[in-house]
Amino acid sequence: MKRLIAFAACLTLAASTGMVAGVAMPSAVFAQGNDNDYTPLNSRIRRDRQFPTEPLHFVDPAQLGAATRDRGRSMEDQFSRCIFERSNEKAFDLIERTDFGFNRFDQIGLDGGEVMDRYPIQTCLGRVTRSHNTGARLMYTPAAMRQWYIQAAYLDAYPDGPTWAVAGNVVPDRGYPLSANNPAVHTAMDFADCVVAQSPNATDFFYRTAPGSELEDHAISAVVPLLGACLPQGQQLDISPQTLRVWLGEGLWHAANNNFPATAENPQEVQ
Question: Are 199 and 215 in contact, with CB atoms under 8 Å apart?
Fold first, then answer.
């Protein structure tokens, strides 16, 4: 008899004076004196958006390969790759038209029924469940759709790690096609962008690991020390590994597609 498995991409966000999301990590993360100073170049480039200036060291290829194999066995990974590979154009269109605040399909002019017609959800769900000899129930929320497409697009574009990262490059502020007036979304994404900028390698490796795996535990131990420096003074963050994965996926996608050399002469390039 086939087993019935439910899998869904879920995330929560609550931000006002602070941020709290999901289940706490082993311990709460506290701000570590981040005052948003500027770079020694005396430009308008913020330190928390600049990659380390020393040479960037990438993850051991053996560990990278192990993480890729572990993740490739999961139904969610196989499903996200399927919907991406069947229509890259639709995937990039959805990513470009939305942001982290995407929570209703009518924000991009679609209703629930049109989503199933436009995106290969049913086809890929059938393909994945047959390969696992199981049944599945899928919650295709707007946030989940964006998360799946970003994951598949990022891992497809950069199979060998964060080869896009250049020491000393800076990442500009992001645009918000749907959430220009949503401070909660801005707070979460500012935090994610800051963490990624501190260590593109550590955050990239964490993003590649399979949820719940030993490699994920190892990767989290490298990411947790980065978090406190990205919180404004007086704030505290409790966050689950799954929620952190979603946020850092957003940060990695933005940084990979938007980073430039730091130049004091042309600060407008990185604003």
Answer: no
